[in-house]
Write a structure and sequence with these properties.
The protein folds into two domains: 124 residues, Response regulator (Rossmann fold, 3-Layer(aba) Sandwich); 119 residues, Response regulator (Rossmann fold). The chain is built from eleven helices and ten strands. The longest helix has 14 residues. With 260 residues, the protein is an alpha/beta fold. A five-stranded parallel sheet has the order 2-1-3-4-5, sandwiched between helices. The two termini are 31 Å apart. 43% of the residues lie in helices and 20% in strands. Helix 7 links the parallel strand 6 and strand 7. Helix 9 packs parallel to helix 10.
Length: 260
């Protein structure tokens, strides 16, 4: 069964988390669970959920800190969120403080106890509206190539070009700044070539997938790209459909079959 979306559950009550996970997985959602703020931040960066269910955790206030981190980060501002506060009798220990609640930005807010099944209609409604766009950075020193790729990707409902770069150094700098999902990287560029830029990106931004683009589709270039940390290799002469398929596969973390 095809997965309908990725949901991150952040909650430190194992029984509740397990019950909610089983309920959502039965609806064909992919569910990722974490029990503290640092785990959750890492999961958001690497799993790219469409929805966060923010439950309770200790120490008190960490749920609010995670909420603020998400809402203040331009990459996650639009991420849908449902907040589950502690039961009334536990709110002074692990619940949201009044001043935190006044700053809350979420699609809905509930207090425990709550049955997982009661959340399903809201979750389905929120995720059915979400069309997650793959954020792509295009790095090529030829304007015609960049414009062509941008035009192609603009026709895709699930893709968005978030930036362009004319050389390897700019590509690395903009990747650090924008944190795209996929970088389309030309090999031969001025200032810093694509291989060096890919090495820097793979070292500093592990969650970003780099696809090498080159008009030279020989084994030497493919091997060099792999050694630099590229996730895949696509020849510029490939059909548009092959490039789009490669971007989608890379974003899912699936192997990219070299297209020629």
């Amino acid at each position: 069964m095809e997965k309908r979306g990725i949901i991150l559950i952040v909650d430190d009550e194992p029984e509740f988390t397990a019950s909610l996970q089983v309920t959502l997985e039965a609806k064909a959602y992919k569910v990722v669970t974490t029990s503290n703020r640092l785990q959750a931040e890492k999961a958001v960066r690497f799993e790219k959920p469409e929805l966060v269910i923010l439950g309770t955790m200790m120490p008190r206030g960490d749920a609010f800190l995670l909420h603020q981190w998400l809402k203040q980060n331009p990459n996650y501002t639009d991420l849908s969120m449902i907040v589950l506060d502690a039961p009334v009798e536990k709110q002074l220990i692990k619940g949201w403080a009044k001043h935190e609640g006044l700053q809350l930005e979420a699609e809905d807010f509930f207090c425990k106890p709550i049955e997982p099944a009661a959340l399903v209609p809201l979750i389905e409604k929120l995720l059915d509206k979400v069309i997650r766009r793959i954020k792509v950075l295009v790095a090529d020193d030829h304007a015609v190539v960049r414009e062509g790729i941008r035009a192609l990707l603009s026709l895709q409902k699930d893709m968005q070009v978030v930036g362009e770069a004319v050389d390897g150094k700019e590509a690395a700098d903009k990747t650090r700044q924008l944190i795209p999902d996929v970088v389309l990287m030309d090999i031969v560029m001025p200032v810093m070539n694509g291989l060096e830029a890919t090495k820097a990106i793979s070292k500093e931004c592990e969650q970003v997938k780099v696809l090498m683009l080159s008009q030279y589709d020989d084994e030497e270039n493919m091997l060099a790209s792999e050694q630099a940390g590229a996730f895949g290799f696509v020849a510029k002469k490939s059909a548009s459909s092959q490039l789009l398929a490669a971007i989608r596969s890379a974003n899912r973390g699936e192997p990219v079959t070299a297209a020629y």
